[in-house]
TrEMBL record:
It comes from Microvirga arabica. Its cofactor is FAD. Pathway: Cofactor biosynthesis; ubiquinone biosynthesis. Keywords: FAD, Flavoprotein, Monooxygenase, Oxidoreductase. This is UbiH/UbiF family hydroxylase. The keyword Heme does not apply. Residues 7-334 form the FAD-binding domain. It comes from the Bacteria. Belongs to the UbiH/COQ6 family. The lineage of its organism: Bacteria, Pseudomonadati, Pseudomonadota, Alphaproteobacteria, Hyphomicrobiales. InterPro entries: FAD-bd, FAD/NAD-bd_sf, UbiH/COQ6, UbiH/COQ6_monooxygenase.
Length: 402
């Protein structure tokens, strides 16, 4: 049995875990990343909002990532609920708030591959491609037991091991879970017409139907609908599925073809009663799970990492080690309100679409109409969506490529 000692151990080698390992290693902490890479294509993409772009720039990973991504210059919302109070389509331009793009859309697997390349080239960072099977914390540090029999010791363990986090369970951190009467069909599409760097979201009575640009004449789709309909769609052959998508999209991108694997994602949510326990901090889906609406999940995971990095650096400057209670309490205070507000926003949008009640339809329609016609209000909302200032971690405050 071998034993190695580090300042920080990150468990989970997805995009959030890789970014955490990079962030700490680049700050000079002796860091180990524990976990195997999963680069199987599953038809899912992520829209990296401007704060996440700044974060990835700070990590030195953005130049290779942007080559695989498509900019989101315009966001278009179409009310397709059939409501009596249906407003006209609304479009929002990134240029209105001084950006070239609200964000960039990239396939999940491509993002993980590029972050893994950056991690491989990073000094102070060791990758151990094994599962962590055990965790213990003490006054002097934390100990991880590996599947191969080895042991990793660190002052702080970062749990980036996903929604079914083993570390969260071992640490005894409580969770609240919920679900919706929906599922999401995800797939990559090719189409005849150019998307013009425009993300189009149709609000339907069963949930959002969102087409997001990819490089070339390609887009990613997240189609939220009833569980039964999502199951039916997922069983269609490629030609029939493409035809159904084209009809729902009102043919605005022309003829469509399936251009990659498809996925069927349950609409669920998860929150935790705290973001840390002794010697361990939760980030990403170990701390919060969102349905695939509003591009919040991974972007919030990157905010977790950047906030934890600030707490560790500030704690060190005050003489505290990375896994100290003072450092982890600071991390907790930086995340609680931010995550709760965004959880409520995503949940509220989805539930108003499902409600089907005239007062709710009126309020949603009036709100969208106000955003379309009141310039200052529209710009404030857009900035908060992609450039949140209050409580923004330092690595998300730097200059952006836009």
């Amino acid at each position: 049995m071998t034993e190695s000692t580090y300042n920080i151990a990150v468990v989970g080698a997805g995009a959030v875990g890789l970014s955490a390992a990079l962030a700490f290693a680049r700050d000079g902490f002796k860091t180990v990343l524990v976990g195997g890479l999963d680069t199987r294509r599953d038809g899912r993409t992520v829209a990296l909002l401007n704060g996440s772009v700044r974060f990835l720039e700070a990590l030195g990973a953005w130049p290779s990532i942007v080559r695989e991504a498509a900019p989101l210059e315009t966001m278009r919302i179409v009310d397709d609920t059939g409501s009596l109070f249906r407003p006209p389509p609304a479009s929002f331009q990134a240029g209105e708030i001084g950006l070239d793009a609200f964000g960039w859309n990239i396939e999940n697997t491509a993002l993980v591959e590029k972050l893994a390349e950056a991690a491989q080239a990073c000094v102070n960072l060791t990758h151990v491609p094994e599962f962590a099977t055990g965790f213990e914390a003490s006054d002097t540090g934390a100990s991880l037991t590996l599947a191969g029999g080895g042991t990793v010791r660190a002052s702080l363990v970062v749990a980036a091991d996903g929604r079914n986090s083993k570390l969260r369970q071992i640490a005894g951190i409580g969770t609240r879970t919920w679900s919706y009467p929906q599922s999401a069909v995800t797939v990559t599409l090719a189409h005849d017409r150019g998307h013009r760097e425009t993300s189009t979201e149709f609000h339907t009575r069963h949930g959002p139907f969102t087409l997001v640009p990819l490089p070339g004449r390609r887009s990613s789709l997240v189609w939220v609908t009833s569980k039964a309909e999502a199951e039916r769609l997922s069983q269609l052959d490629e030609a029939a599925l493409a035809a159904a998508i084209e009809r729902q999209a009102q043919s605005h991108l022309g003829v469509m073809r399936v251009d990659g694997p498809r996925g069927l994602v349950p609409m669920t949510g998860l929150s935790v009663n705290r973001y840390w326990a002794r010697r361990v901090a939760l980030v990403g889906e170990a701390a919060h799970v969102f349905p695939p609406i509003g591009a919040q999940g991974l972007n919030l995971g990157f905010r977790d990492v950047a906030s934890l990095r600030d707490a560790v650096v500030d704690g060190q400057n005050e003489g505290h080690e990375p896994g100290s209670e003072e450092t982890l309490t600071r991390y907790q205070s930086s995340r609680d309100l931010d995550v709760r507000l965004r959880t409520a926003a995503v949940d509220g949008l989805n539930r108003t679409l499902l409600a089907g009640m005239l007062p709710t339809d009126f309020l949603r329609g009036a709100g969208l109409l106000a955003l379309s016609n009141i310039g200052p209000l529209r710009r404030v909302v857009m900035r908060e969506g992609v450039l949140p200032r209050v409580g923004a971690p330092r690595l998300m405050q730097g200059p952006s490529t836009g």
